[in-house]
Prior knowledge:
Elements (H helix, E strand, L loop, with lengths): L12 H8 L12 H7 L6 H11 L6 H16 L6 H4 L8 H14 L4 H9 L8 H10 L6 H4 L8 H15 L5 H6 L6 H14 L5 H5 L5 H17 L5 H13 L17 H7 L5 H14 L4 H11 L5 H13 L6 H8 L7 H14 L5 H6 L6 H13 L4 H6 L5 H10 L2
Amino acid sequence: MDKRFFKLFDLTEEQAIAVLDTSPDQVGEHDSRYIAASHLVNFSTAQSIQALIRALQQTDPSLQNRIVRRKAIETLGRLQVSEAIPFIRPALAERDKFTVENAVWAIGEIGTQDPNLLNEITALLNTPEQNYRVIIQTLAKLDHQPALAAIRPFIDDREPSVAGTAIAAVCRLTGETSQIDRVTALLQHPNVMVRRLAIQDLIDARHYDAIGEIARCPVSLVFRLRGIRSLAAAGMAEGKLSFLDIQPHLEQCLRDHPTDLALVNHYERPPELASLIHDLFDTDFGRCYLAAKELLQTHAQTAPEALLAAYRETACADYGAHFHVVKLLGWLRHAPAYDLFVEALHNRQPQFQKSRAAAAIALGELGDRRAVDALKTCLETRVWDLKYAALMALQQLGDATGAQLASQDQDWLVKAKAAQLLP
């Protein structure tokens, strides 16, 4: 599990426990039991686990306390605390559907083969207004074959993400693949959330043939990379894929050029430059990539200065726009952006992590060999996509020493790439 984003709160374990143990009506205005329950994911100690269980057993009916209980359940799931299952199990019968959802998910993370407990979860598929997607995912993950009859009707659910996960579950439980192309088709759905969830369903179904389509799906490359990496690991473990099979798709994804994506959005009429810059801030990355493509194709001469101005004004603080501006200036080979790229390369703020790999790719595009040393320092991090992107950039800059440094890397994809580059 990637835990880079967990340690965002300046609390010790003892402080977090003290806040979480505070009665809901006694919490100070600068304290948050929710934040405390979130922060304890960093401490898998007996005292933290017991504090989370106590929070779960706090029955104050207020909305704030219900939210804290949901987070406590989630944290126990992330910590995979098996002894917490007897305390989580009663939550399956609660009226609050979000608490039920977290309980199902947490049990899936912890794992169980208790048929009675799994049958309780299966019965939730007949309960109105539940998160059927999470329930189906959990039952398939725990390989509960008796749930098949209850899962199959959801294959034709009106909600695409529910139908997709039901198809993936049937595929996972039976090996039946007759409907899996329907899930692949969801990678082109107009709704960005449906596209993201389809990637997870294809991972769950271990549908290796979808790797190329995932690489072209117009969502954030974080979701695409996760899909490709997960399927690659499973496929190579089964002997069905090799590194060479997935490498083109992986590197296409890391390069992240908008013309390599199968875009689902379109413009009714050519937008103005200012409007395209504005679209780089959209939360639907499909729209961002459409704007990026248009900027590259029709505004290549005027875009660099407009992008730099947007960066100085607002994009420097918006992690999505920051990413797109860095990538675009790299594709435009805008030499004055060199220092911006180096700054982004070394930005360790968690929310800007994908901009680091983007900056590596941009430096490779720029072709300035001054970047070699800065790129080589990235090979000492623990961020696999940054290291891989740095190797791609170093290759583009004609440097082979980076491959030697990464030849024994702990990450299997980085190591495979480095081995390929060695003389």
